[in-house]
Inverse folding.
């Protein structure tokens, strides 16, 4: 089953509650929350207060994407405040510390996940795959919404799908960055089953229809 995770990075923050409820009623499966520290990526975005507010608004799983250095420092806090899935970047710390963060996430009763930047080879996921419930492949450079989809990431998605099927079949495979009705089928054909979309949802004009289109791509 294909799932859609609208990103609140493209939401109207003055009406965040309404926007989250709108996509929930429109058929979204997860709410995607981007956390940026201004160091790992050149931007600063949401933190614990937004996560806490989102948790009060929706019963949908909160898919928290941590674009921060040394993420283990914040695992307990984000888990406690309502994350259902906690994604950390393989590039954000040492292999040992990333594995420790994934284990700590699961100990908190939250689904652990890892993410790869476009320049990171597919093989980088292998040490972490046994500890993950989801892998996120970035199809833009992380840090800003509204970027153009990078189709050259599809071989990476395909390779990771093959490893997931072999080594961890219950693991989900998510893509994030420039996803729209024109390219969603490429992601699905190469093995993704969770699509993050932000700008394209806001511009669709008919959110329920757009989410349905993504799922049927």
């Amino acid at each position: 089953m294909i799932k859609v995770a609208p990103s609140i990075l493209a939401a109207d923050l003055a009406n965040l509650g309404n926007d989250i409820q709108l996509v929930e009623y429109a058929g979204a499966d997860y709410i995607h929350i981007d956390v940026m520290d201004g160091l790992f990526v050149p931007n600063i975005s949401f933190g614990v207060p937004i996560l806490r507010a989102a948790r009060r608004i929706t019963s949908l799983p909160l898919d928290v994407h941590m674009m921060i250095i040394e993420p283990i420092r914040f695992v307990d806090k984000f888990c406690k405040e309502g994350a259902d899935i906690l994604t950390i970047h393989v590039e954000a710390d040492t292999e040992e510390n990333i594995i420790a963060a994934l284990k700590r996430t699961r100990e908190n009763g939250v689904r652990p996940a890892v993410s790869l930047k476009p320049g990171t080879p597919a093989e980088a996921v292998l040490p972490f795959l046994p500890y993950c419930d989801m892998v996120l492949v970035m199809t833009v450079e992380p840090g800003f919404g509204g970027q153009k989809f990078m189709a050259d990431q599809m071989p990476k998605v395909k390779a990771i799908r093959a490893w997931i099927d072999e080594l961890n079949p219950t693991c989900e495979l998510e893509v994030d960055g420039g996803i729209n009705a024109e390219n969603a089928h490429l992601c699905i054909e190469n093995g993704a089953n969770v699509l993050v979309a932000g700008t394209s949802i806001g511009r669709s004009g008919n959110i329920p229809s757009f989410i349905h289109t993504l799922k049927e791509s």
Remarks:
- The longest helix spans residues 154-167.
- The chain has a mean pLDDT of 93.
- The two ends are 11 Å apart (CA to CA).
